[in-house]
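ok so for the tutorial part 2 we go from a plain amino acid sequence to predicted structure tokens. step 1 is just haveing the sequence, like this:
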Amino acid sequence: MNIPELKYDRHGLVPAIIQDADNREVLMMAYMNAEAFARTIETGYTHFWSRSRNTLWKKGETSGHVQEVRQILYDCDKDTVLIKVIQQGPGACHTGHRSCFYTDISGSEITQKVFSEENVYGKK
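step 2 — the prediction. this is what the tokens look like for a chain of 124 residues:
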């Protein structure tokens, strides 16, 4: 497989938009460094760079809600990737929602939680 030369930012990161491969719902946005991108391609499961923990992580390694990669696209500037996935488990968001995009511009939650983050992660 020919891996594209992406344009990483000054921190060595590229935004990754994660989308449900079947219904096209945007599930989340996270950052990848070159290692996370390579591991995602190698394993077929999403990996990201945690800016807060300063470490590489596999989505779902704690919850079991892994994301199986179906397709990887990049934008015309090669500075953002779109990854279409099969979301395992009820949701992608650590708050218990299916998508991280559950709040509208007025601050109202527009969807309900689909799992208990306390039960999955042992904390609020």
